[in-house]
Design brief:
2 domains, Purple Acid Phosphatase, chain A, domain 2, single chain, 10 helices, 8-stranded mixed beta sheet, 6-stranded mixed beta sheet
């Protein structure tokens, strides 16, 4: 990831420039074409496609600029996370980040790989990234806020001929609108009764700290535990799930090596679908290491005691596409003596932000069984454990957010702070400088022993910071 492409000011100015260029191209097409005028990449797209791209970007800009600023400063003197690790709410803006990032990587634009000028750094590994476009100067204002020079961002040579960006964005919108076909053949994969399942969420950023997480997962896999081993990703490859992002940010760094007898699985998150899910199905799930998933975005892992159901909440953003609830409920009823665990990208609830409303509605038939003993989700870039509780009258067992695999997030609480039940634990040890208290990255290790599951949380430095010996209470 490149620092400028993670800066909100940069992305919004670039988006405004592309929206204006789309408007110019549409107006040009309404007039007579000059004889002999050279064709550019934009000319390969229809007026309808350009109009659709313009409307997507214009409405995304309006919503983003009108949204309340995120309270992610974690205290006085700390600049907004959106200046350093901007993850847009809007799919169109994530698509634009992908297009800019991939163009910069493939062009002759000089990218520095060194500590950012004027940045704060808490160790040998950058909190976010040490990659930045060299000739867009970085400075801090007297307030401490980071700014990318006094010039307008769009005067940079990257935008002197925006046709490449306009065309790339319009084609990305085409993919977003024309999403991949839904695959409705969920496999039930038999796993060992003594199994170790490593679970990580929102990992696919490719930044150095995400690589550290992969190294720590590898260390766990190399332990002589005597257990069958599996790794599950809870979804989201950034910025928008393009083919290149899966290859660079996921498959090249995945801790399971080719040819190993270690199961690999990856759920679908909202960012996986921003490029229409084409690369999720056509690149990620085609990798031989994920063959057990059978090309489907949801699946079941089953042994003699446990039924772990991986749900796709990304194809329908924050929902359950198709009859996943019926499928899950049917499996639960078919194995009445099994303990049940759910895996998903989106959260049912949170101590910090709303749950996914469509998921809350569609999962009710599953919760009505009162058989959910554990649930692990991502999406929110934090590490949280919740005790068993009731949600709208239905029992929800041990629950945990594991979205802290690879996207930088500021701490919003301090060590020693608590929240009301069912909140039970949150990893609040900061990464890096106290001036910018970032969440530490990490993952969880689930060990299955008969009807019992233990969970141990490990951070990017290999520290075991929280363990629960018995997830299922007697």
């Amino acid at each position: 990831m490149i620092a400028q492409v993670l800066n909100q000011d940069f992305v919004l100015e670039a988006a405004a420039a592309v929206e204006q260029d789309l408007e110019r191209n549409l107006q040009r097409r309404e007039g007579p074409r000059r004889r002999g005028a050279p064709r550019g990449p934009v000319d390969e797209l229809s007026s309808a496609e350009l109009k659709e791209a313009q409307e997507e970007l214009k409405s995304a800009l309006q919503r983003e600029r009108g949204a309340a600023p995120e309270d992610a400063t974690a205290g006085g003197g700390v600049e907004s996370k959106d200046a350093l690790a901007y993850v847009p709410r809007e799919a169109a803006l994530s698509l634009l980040q992908t297009v800019i990032d991939e163009y910069v990587e493939e062009s002759e634009v000089k990218v520095e790989e060194s500590p950012l000028p004027g940045g704060r750094r808490g160790g040998t590994v950058p909190a976010v990234t040490d990659r930045w476009i060299a000739d867009i100067p970085i400075q801090r204002l007297p307030s401490g806020r980071r700014k990318w020079g006094d010039m307008e961002i769009t005067k940079h040579k990257l935008f002197s001929d925006p046709g490449w960006l306009t065309s790339g964005f319009a084609m990305a919108v085409r993919a977003f609108r024309g999403r991949a076909d839904w695959v409705d053949k969920p496999p039930t994969v038999e796993i060992g009764d003594r199994a170790r399942i490593v679970v990580v969420g929102d990992w696919g950023s490719g930044i150095p700290r995400a690589k550290e997480v992969a190294d720590q997962i590898r260390a766990v896999l190399d332990e002589d535990s005597g257990r069958e081993r599996h790794v599950v990703h809870l979804g989201d490859v950034y910025y928008s799930g393009s083919k290149r992002e899966y290859e660079r940010n996921f498959l090249n760094l995945w801790p399971v090596r080719k040819g190993e007898e270690i199961g690999s699985f990856s759920l679908c998150g909202n960012h996986d679908m921003y490029y229409g899910g084409h690369a999720y199905y056509g690149t990620l799930l085609k990798d031989p290491r994920l063959a057990r998933q059978g090309g489907c975005s949801y699946f079941a892992l089953k042994n003699s005691n446990w039924l772990l159901l991986g749900l796709d909440t990304g194809y329908e953003d924050g929902g359950l596409n198709g009859d996943q609830a019926g499928w899950a409920k049917g499996l639960i009823e078919d194995f009445p003596q099994h303990k049940v665990g759910l895996l998903s990208h989106h959260q049912l609830f949170s101590a910090h932000e709303p749950g996914a409303k469509k998921l809350q509605e569609k999962i009710k038939p599953v919760l009505a069984t009162n058989r959910v003993d554990a649930w692990f989700w991502g999406h929110e870039h934090r590490c949280i454990q919740y005790d068993a509780s009731e949600w709208e009258g239905h029992r929800v067992g041990f629950a945990s957010c594991l979205g802290h695999g690879g996207i930088p997030e500021y701490l919003v609480m301090k060590e020693g702070e608590t929240k009301p039940p069912p909140w039970a634990y949150e990893y609040l040890k900061p990464f890096g400088s106290p001036d910018e208290p970032w969440e530490k990255f990490g993952f969880a290790v689930l060990d299955l022993d008969g009807p019992q599951m233990s969970v141990c949380y490990i951070d990017e430095e290999g520290t075991k910071h929280h363990c629960v010996e018995k997830v299922v209470k007697p």
